[in-house]
């Protein structure tokens, strides 16, 4: 019978474990959370595991579950560990985890290692999920039966605890393997560059004034967009201050309907087909009407936000850039998606130069030659199944 997983429920216990972690070269971490009923994720569990005693085949070090919902428990010892730069903090697909810690305490793990990013750099493809890495590196199956469980319920079941611990115990071997591969290929700085973007506070700040730019609209009318802007601003502010999902205020389709119809009275608002019943009265209804009035009356009209930077006349060049990207990604053994997105390629084709693919390690792998291609200084040629870069002139 499996040993009972250790669950930390006091600040002193957490502090003692974090002191152990500070003496280690790395610690693996993961979180479980809920977000269905809130704007900000509600942290329900933190998993931590220390390295094996000596090497990846040795017995694993201690692994624990930390219950942030336990009465009186402070996560400050964990945040102190995050600030301890001698210990690498290892996550898989860290963005959602980091968002929680940033909004809860304004702190990021330093240094950070994201195994999802490292796997893409090491040639595991664009869909290098944790389960895939466990199968390919650790060569063990992974029980995902508790994936959609309610992590806020207490007590945790044995199955929940074992599932949660597996997310950090297997991560040790994955980290050691990927870290060794990066050292061998000299690409450690590539992953560090990606980690720097992950710990940029701007990644996790959603400003109500900018929320309208994420709403997909078909009309580019400045007045229509002004109403969209005011509605999106109200919705984001309301959702943030009351910690409710923005869809619980009103969904995008309702926002578009409101911006088109521009109701200015309670009676007009009641005619909406898509607005939730709760939004047709009270504080939300008054906020909607005020936002529409502000959008109708403002002289500060926004300019349309293009869906893609690319222009129709550059479609052929975009396609050539896609061919070049695939060829360079294959040669480097890196997932193309990590180097450049489709919108990045369209932007480059239309003359935009403030694109991630044109700086840092991406420029070395792809961006520098992408610019030469747009300037007509190189061409692409096919030989058998390979794509070759050919100088022009």
TrEMBL record:
Principal place of residence: cytoplasm
GO molecular function, one term: nucleic acid binding
EC number: 3.1.13.5
Catalytic activity annotation: Exonucleolytic cleavage that removes extra residues from the 3'-terminus of tRNA to produce 5'-mononucleotides
Example of a GO biological process term: tRNA 3'-end processing
Residues annotated as domain HRDC: 221-302
Known cofactor(s): a divalent metal cation
Highest taxon listed in the record's lineage: Bacteria
SMART domains: 35EXOc, HRDC
Keywords noted in UniProt: Cytoplasm, Exonuclease, Hydrolase, Nuclease, tRNA processing
Record's GO cellular component terms: cytoplasm
Stored Gene3D superfamilies: HRDC domain, Ribonuclease H-like superfamily/Ribonuclease H
Name of one Pfam family that matches: HRDC
Physiological role: Exonuclease involved in the 3' processing of various precursor tRNAs. Initiates hydrolysis at the 3'-terminus of an RNA molecule and releases 5'-mononucleotides.
Family: Belongs to the RNase D family.
HAMAP family with a match to the protein in the record: RNase_D
Name of the featured protein: Ribonuclease D
Organism: Paracoccus solventivorans
Gene (UniProt): rnd
């Amino acid at each position: 019978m499996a040993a009972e997983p250790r669950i930390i429920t006091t600040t002193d216990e957490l502090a003692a474990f974090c002191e152990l972690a500070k003496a280690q070269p790395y610690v693996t971490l993961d979180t479980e959370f809920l977000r269905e009923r809130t704007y900000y994720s509600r942290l329900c569990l933190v998993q931590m595991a220390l390295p094996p005693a000596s090497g990846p085949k040795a017995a694993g070090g201690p692994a624990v579950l930390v219950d942030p919902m336990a009465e009186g428990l402070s996560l400050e010892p964990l945040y102190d560990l995050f600030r301890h730069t001698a210990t690498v903090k290892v996550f898989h697909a860290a963005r959602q985890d980091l968002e929680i810690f940033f909004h809860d305490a304004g702190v990021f793990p330093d240094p950070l290692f994201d195994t999802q990013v490292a796997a893409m750099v090491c040639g595991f493809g664009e869909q290098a999920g944790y389960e895939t890495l466990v199968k390919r590196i650790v060569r063990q199956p992974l029980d995902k039966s508790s994936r959609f469980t309610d992590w806020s319920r207490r007590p945790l079941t044995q199955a929940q605890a074992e599932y949660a611990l597996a997310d950090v115990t297997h991560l040790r071997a994955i980290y050691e393997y990927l870290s060794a591969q990066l050292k061998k290929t000299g690409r450690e700085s590539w992953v560090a560059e990606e980690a720097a973007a992950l710990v940029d506070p701007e990644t996790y700040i959603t400003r109500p004034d900018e929320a309208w730019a994420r709403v997909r609209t078909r009309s580019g009318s400045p007045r229509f967009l002004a109403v969209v802007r005011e509605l999106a601003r109200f919705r984001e502010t309301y959702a943030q201050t009351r910690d409710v999902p923005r869809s619980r205020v009103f969904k995008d389709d309702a926002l578009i309907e409101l911006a088109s119809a521009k109701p200015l009275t309670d009676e007009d608002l009641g005619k909406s087909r898509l607005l939730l019943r709760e939004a047709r009265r009270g504080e939300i209804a008054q906020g909607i009407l005020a936002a529409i009035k502000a959008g109708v009356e403002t002289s500060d009209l926004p300019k349309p936000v293009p869906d893609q930077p690319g222009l129709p006349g550059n479609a052929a060049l975009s396609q050539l850039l896609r061919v070049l990207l695939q060829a360079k990604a294959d040669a480097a053994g890196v997932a193309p998606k990590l180097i450049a997105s489709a919108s990045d390629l369209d932007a480059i084709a239309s003359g935009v130069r403030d694109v991630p693919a044109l700086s840092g390690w991406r420029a070395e792998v792809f961006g520098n030659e992408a610019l030469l291609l747009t300037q007509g200084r190189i061409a692409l040629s096919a030989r058998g199944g390979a794509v070759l870069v050919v100088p022009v002139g």
